[in-house]
């Protein structure tokens, strides 16, 4: 069975085609700068031994339909194609960021599902509309092939009421859906499963704290395979410090910005989502640059790293309290997998909780799942590379073969 996974942004389409018999990516690519003067389509075919075969095509991509048509053509291309005909694709799995309360599991896409995703647009105005564009285009280009929506929020629907409700008038929850939803669900689900496999135990016997650190960042408390709390809220703004997002802050701050600095709602929204986080503190949202500048004695970069890791540490402590017993802490995402100093500082001083990192293991370069905890650490600390696209393909397969 071959499954195409699509992640559509406002000006991009990321895609992977999987052979699900071996859970192997046959093709990986991205169409970028769709609708702009300059565009780029990058298509890669992984090779077992050696560098992947690759084609980069520069030039305007008028819209998402044109982008998807080009991707479809590349998949059957005589040189870099991996299938003979697009009819070999058994299903298309779509990443959809916000499923609201309506979707607690992956689901086959039909008109009713599309209507419900549209209803959730106010909860994710930057994400759901482009996700819907991807669905519309894929349904047109791959007619008759099952399309499946896999929601970032679905994994977190096991949170108890006391974790997902805000202390606001209850009508706001009942009528407007104001509550904590959480995001990065496919990543948290995937790495928790992989961690359990690595530890040789059933997922339903383990308590874990999973930490997804990329430009967006979130942390989840997982009790016996079920999420019971997570840092992101109704939107992806809440929680940890991120690349350009502020994370947790005083709820009265927007009023101060409005009244004192005369900022309007759009300006405040842009400030908190696009100009804050690491970028707000030291001018860049790239953790690699933050770390390089810190090495050279940049005080603002030092502050950015300290604030970033301090917030992670606070959440680790909170989720230890929530879970009671913790078997493993899992780092993942681009920063979580590749920045040893972030992992070290996030766990520094937590020996009282039974958490201790082995510096040599932590600093060793590896791209595989690995333990970085010290021999005397009561709680295992793992680095688990995430694969959200594979998880979407796995969930899609479950739905279409049910």
Descriptive tags:
402 residues; alpha/beta; Nucleotidyltransferase, domain 5; 8-stranded mixed β-sheet; 6-stranded mixed β-sheet; 15 helices; cytoplasm; nucleotide-binding; Acetate kinase; Ac/propionate_kinase; magnesium ion binding
Question: How does the SSE layout of this entry go?
Answer:
Elements: E1 2-8, E2 13-19, E3 24-32, E4 40-45, E5 53-58, H1 64-75, E6 89-96, E7 107-108, H2 111-119, H3 128-141, E8 147-151, H4 161-164, H5 170-176, H6 185-199, E9 207-213, E10 217-223, E11 226-230, H7 253-261, H8 265-274, H9 277-282, H10 287-295, H11 299-323, E12 328-332, H12 333-338, H13 340-347, H14 359-363, E13 370-371, E14 380-383, H15 388-400
Catalytic activity: acetate + ATP = acetyl phosphate + ADP
Active site: 152 (proton donor/acceptor)
Binding site for ATP: 14, 212-216, 286-288, 334-338
Report the C-alpha radius of gyration, rounded.
21 Å
Q: Span between N and C termini?
A: 14 Å
Q: Give me the CATH architecture of the largest domain, please.
A: 2-Layer Sandwich
How many β strands by DSSP?
Answer: 14
What's the multimeric state? single chain
Mean pLDDT, as a whole number? Answer: 95
The major pleated sheet works out as: 8 strands, mixed
Q: Which CATH first-tier class of the largest domain would you pick? A: Alpha Beta
> How many structural domains in the coordinates?
2
Strand content: 15-25%
The coarse overall form would be globular
Figure out the total of helices: 15
By secondary-structure content and strand pairing, the structural class works out as alpha/beta
Fill in the CATH topology of the largest domain: Nucleotidyltransferase, domain 5
Q: What is the CATH superfamily classification of the largest domain?
A: ATPase, nucleotide binding domain
EC number: 2.7.2.1
Pathway: Metabolic intermediate biosynthesis; acetyl-CoA biosynthesis; acetyl-CoA from acetate: step 1/2
Binding site for Mg(2+): 7, 388
Enzyme class: transferase
